[in-house]
From TrEMBL:
Record-linked CDD domains: AdoMet_MTases
The SAM-dependent methyltransferase TRM5/TYW2-type domain, residue ranges: 195-466
Keywords, sorted A to Z: Cytoplasm, Methyltransferase, Mitochondrion, Nucleus, S-adenosyl-L-methionine, Transferase, tRNA processing
Chain segments carrying region Disordered: 477-498
Biological function: Involved in mitochondrial tRNA methylation. Specifically methylates the N1 position of guanosine-37 in various tRNAs. Methylation is not dependent on the nature of the nucleoside 5' of the target nucleoside. This is the first step in the biosynthesis of wybutosine (yW), a modified base adjacent to the anticodon of tRNAs and required for accurate decoding.
Tree of life domain: Eukaryota
Catalytic activity from the UniProt record: guanosine(37) in tRNA + S-adenosyl-L-methionine = N(1)-methylguanosine(37) in tRNA + S-adenosyl-L-homocysteine + H(+)
Entry's Gene Ontology cellular component terms: mitochondrial matrix
Origin species: Alca torda
Protein name, per record: TRM5 methyltransferase
Entry's family note: Belongs to the class I-like SAM-binding methyltransferase superfamily. TRM5/TYW2 family.
GO function terms (MF aspect): tRNA (guanine(37)-N1)-methyltransferase activity
Length: 498
C-alpha cells in the first residue's frame, strides 16, 4: 500500500487496520476509498491460489543444507526417473536417551533436534531396547560437540552429554522436489519456473533447457504433490480464436477434464479445450465485490463463468457470452452445477456481435426507464487481454437518443497487456484512442498481475461517456425524409434515411 502513496498515518490507523484484518483482500481497495476518500490509480492484487513455485536460486540459509540433503551425485543428467538412484547415507549426531524421557528432551532441545520433514527424529537403539537415539541437527552441532546451554539441559535431565555418530539413510522419499531437480539438472541451471494447479492437473511452462528432463520433472511433481495425477506442459502460446493452447501430458493420467474450486464456487472444465487461469481468482473476486444485488452484468468473453456465476449468485441479472463452443457448453454446465441457470442468459457469439446485439438491446430497453432514485448499475466486463481494447470502438454511438442520467451510464472493465515502461498510462491511451475521447480523471487502472518479464496485465475501469455512447438525432430532421442524411461517427458511409 505504501508503494501507491498512502500515508503512514492512514495505514497505521487502528480502525483501518482492524477493517483490513477482517476483510477479504480483494475488498481492501474499497476500504482505501472509505478511509482516504480516493481511489488508487493502480493497485496490486496478490493471492497465492493454486500457483506453486520452486526456487531457482539457493537462499543463503539453505546453502548449508545442500551437502547434507543432496541426493547421490550420480543422478546428475538423469532424464528418466530412477528413484533408487537417489539413495544416500549421511552421518548425523545422536544422543542416547532413556525412552521414558524422550518427549521431555525433545521439548527442551527443540531448536537443536533435527526438524527435517519426513525424517524421524527418534530411532530405535539396536543395542539397548530401553533407550532411544535422538537425532540432532548436524548444522547446530558442529564437530559433534554440544554447547554449554545444551549440556546444562542434559545435566538437569540426567542424560549423558556424549554425542555419537549415526548413519542416516536418505531415499528419494526424503528429498524435496527442488532438491531432486537441482541434483538432476545441469549445475547452475534454473530448476523450474513453477506450475499452476487446476484440480488434479499441474500445468507447467518449461523453458528450453528443461525440456530434455520434462518427463522426469512431471513425475517428480506427481510424487511430491498429493492430489496431482496429471502434469502437462504448454507447447504453444494462447493465440487461437478460442483462447486454448496445445499441451503435452508429461506424467500421470491423460484425463484433462477436471473440477476446480474458486472463491467457494465449483467449476468443471476440459483444460485442453477451454481457458482457465487460477491466478485470476483474486481479480474475479475484486470485480464481483463491486456489484450489488439487482445490477445488470454483461460478460463479453465469459469463458466457463468465473465472473458470471458469482455475479448471478449475488442476485445480479447476468448476460454471459463466449465464442468458443466448448467454453459455452461448459458455461451452461457450470450454471446448472451452481443452480444459477435461470439467472444467466448465455450466448455463443463473437464479442462484437454480442455487444451490438444483446448488450445494445438490453441497454436501449433499460436505460430510458432508469430513474434518478434507482440504484441499478450496469457493468460490462471484457476479459480478453490480447484484444479487448480494440473492441472499445463499438461503444461509439452504440445507442441512439438523449443520454440517460450520468449515474446510469454503464461501467466498463476492460483488460489488456502492456510492455510499456508506464503500463497504466499506455493502457489508458489505447483505450482513449479506441473510444475517441479522453478518459483523464474518469478512469481507474489496476495492475492485475505480471504475466512475463516486462509484460503486465491490467484492468482499466470507466463509465462510458455520454457523448461517446449516445448518438443524437440528426439535426436536419426538418428536411424531407427522402433527402435527410446522417453520418455516423464510427462509419465513413453516409446512410440515406427514408
Amino acid at each position: 500500500l505504501w508503494r501507491f502513496g498512502y500515508s503512514a498515518r492512514l495505514l497505521k490507523t487502528n480502525h483501518f487496520r482492524t477493517a483490513v484484518s477482517n476483510t477479504s483482500f480483494p475488498a481492501v481497495w474499497m476500504l482505501l476509498v472509505q478511509y482516504s476518500g480516493t481511489i488508487p490509480a493502480r493497485f496490486v492484487v496478490v493471492k497465492k491460489n493454486s500457483f506453486f513455485t520452486m526456487p531457482e536460486t539457493v537462499p543463503e540459509t539453505d546453502k548449508a543444507n545442500l551437502e547434507l540433503y543432496s541426493p547421490h551425485p550420480g543422478v546428475r543428467g538423469m532424464t528418466l526417473l530412477n528413484r533408487a538412484a537417489f539413495k544416500r547415507t549421511v552421518v548425523v549426531p545422536v544422543l542416547k536417551v532413556k525412552k521414558e524421557i524422550v518427549n521431555t528432551l525433545l521439548k527442551s532441545l527443540k531448536h537443536t533436534v533435527l526438524q527435517r520433514p519426513g525424517l524421524k527424529r527418534v530411532v530405535e537403539d539396536t543395542e539397548d531396547e530401553d533407550s532411544r537415539l535422538v537425532i540432532l541437527d548436524p548444522h547446530k552441532i558442529p564437530e559433534f560437540s554440544l554447547g554449554e546451554a545444551e549440556q546444562e539441559v542434559l545435566k538437569q535431565l540426567n542424560v549423558c552429554p556424549e554425542v555419537s555418530k549415526y548413519n542416516l539413510e536418505l531415499t528419494y522419499e526424503n528429498f524435496k522436489s527442488e532438491e531432486i531437480l537441482r541434483a538432476v539438472l545441469p549445475e547452475g541451471q534454473e530448476v523450474t519456473s513453477g506450475f499452476s494447479r487446476v484440480g488434479h492437473i499441474a500445468h507447467l511452462n518449461l523453458r528450453d533447457h528443461q525440456l530434455p528432463y520434462r518427463y522426469l520433472i512431471g513425475q517428480v511433481i506427481i510424487d511430491k504433490n498429493p492430489g496431482i495425477t496429471c502434469v502437462v506442459n504448454k507447447t504453444s502460446i494462447i493465440d487461437s480464436t478460442y483462447r486454448n493452447f496445445q499441451m503435452e501430458v508429461l506424467a500421470g493420467e491423460s484425463n484433462l477434464v477436471t473440477k476446480v474450486k474458486e472463491n467457494n464456487i465449483a467449476y468443471e472444465l476440459d483444460f485442453s479445450k477451454v481457458y482457465w487461469n487460477p491466478r485470476l481468482s483474486t481479480e474475479h473476486s475484486r470485480i464481483v465485490e463491486l456489484l450489488k444485488p439487482g445490477d445488470v452484468f454483461f460478460d463479453v468473453f465469459a469463458g466457463i463463468g468465473p465472473f458470471a456465476i458469482p455475479a448471478a449468485k449475488k442476485k445480479c441479472r447476468v448476460f454471459a457470452n463466449d465464442l468458443n463452443p466448448e467454453s459455452y457448453s461448459w458455461l451452461l454446465h457450470n450454471c446448472k452445477l451452481n443452480k444459477v441457470d435461470n439467472k444467466i442468459k448465455a450466448f455463443n457469439m463473437d464479442g462484437r456481435d454480442f455487444l451490438l446485439g444483446p448488450v445494445r438491446e438490453e441497454l436501449s430497453k433499460e436505460l430510458p426507464l432508469l430513474k434518478e432514485e434507482q440504484k441499478t448499475s450496469f457493468h460490462i466486463v471484457m476479459n480478453l487481454p490480447a484484444l479487448a481494447i480494440e473492441f472499445l470502438d463499438i461503444f461509439r454511438h452504440l445507442l441512439v437518443g438523449e443520454p440517460c442520467s450520468t449515474a446510469g451510464l454503464p461501467t466498463v472493465h476492460c483488460y489488456g497487456f502492456s510492455k510499456h515502461d508506464d503500463p497504466a498510462k499506455e493502457i489508458q491511451e489505447r483505450a482513449e484512442a479506441s473510444l475517441g475521447t479522453s478518459l483523464a480523471g474518469r478512469c481507474s487502472t489496476y495492475l492485475v498481475r505480471n504475466v512475463a518479464p516486462n509484460k503486465e496485465m491490467l484492468c482499466i475501469s470507466f463509465q462510458i461517456p455520454a457523448d461517446v455512447l449516445y448518438k443524437r438525432p440528426c439535426p436536419d430532421e426538418a428536411k424531407p425524409a427522402s433527402k435527410r442524411l446522417c453520418t455516423s461517427k464510427d462509419s465513413s458511409e453516409e446512410k440515406l434515411l427514408s
